[in-house]
Write a structure and sequence with these properties.
With 196 residues, the protein is of the alpha+beta class. It has a single domain (1-196), classed as H-NOX domain (Alpha-Beta Complex), CATH 3.90.1520. 49% of the residues lie in helices and 18% in strands. The chain contains 8 helices and 6 strands, in the order βαααβααααββαββ.
Length: 196
């Protein structure tokens, strides 16, 4: 679990920016940035470096503001951003490493995939049943939007990112249900995964 403040990889921010501009236009991006605190605006309007680390709280504020301006306050608007990030980041990796194109490989790689994007918290594979095509993942991290990945990431981005990753790895269909959430007073976030 995070003791200090966690960070998110710049690729999430740069891909989110790219998605927002390509989907809603430059003016929508400017409106989002103008609704953020000045230090956040300065970072997001600067040169985002995909390999650098940025405060997780910056990502949370970006996603929260995006949802206020382009969603309904339920964070469902975050789903296409997570899909886009998965396609942009996982796509080239899966193409280069053909042997990764198996759902089980994506699930077994959950810890390293999480740490590729966040430097706080631990995402673990609790169960993998190949016969039933069923898996359980859990995320152990503090519930603090100022120090770790936030509600939008936990409830919508993580499931959608894994769903897209599993589909890109060969699954025909994927269903992910979050059965526990650290933002709802559970100790961990727990995700049950079924694929076909």
């Amino acid at each position: 679990m995070t003791e200090g403040s966690g960070s998110a990889k710049g690729s999430i921010l740069s891909n989110a920016k790219e998605y927002i501009i390509s989907t809603h236009g430059e003016s929508a991006w400017k409106k989002i940035v103008n609704n953020l605190p000045e230090p956040d605006s300065a970072v997001l309007e600067g040169d985002l470096v995909s390999t650098d680390w940025y405060p997780a709280s910056l990502l949370n504020r970006l996603l929260n503001t995006y949802d206020v301006l382009h969603g309904n306050g339920d964070f469902l608007s975050i789903v296409p951003i997570a899909e886009y990030v998965a396609k942009k980041d996982l796509g080239p990796m899966l193409e280069a490493l053909v042997n990764l194109k198996k759902p089980a490989t994506i699930l077994k790689s959950a810890p390293s995939l999480w740490s590729r994007y966040f430097d706080s918290g631990i995402l673990e594979l609790e169960l993998l049943d190949m016969e039933k095509k069923y898996s359980v993942l859990y995320l152990d991290e503090i519930a603090d939007e100022e120090r770790a990945s936030g509600v939008a990431v936990c409830n919508f981005a993580v499931p959608e990112w894994f769903k897209m990753g599993l589909m890109m790895a060969g699954a025909n269909s994927v269903k992910i249900i979050q059965t526990a959430c650290r933002y709802k007073n559970d100790k961990i976030c727990r995700f049950e995964v079924w694929w076909d």
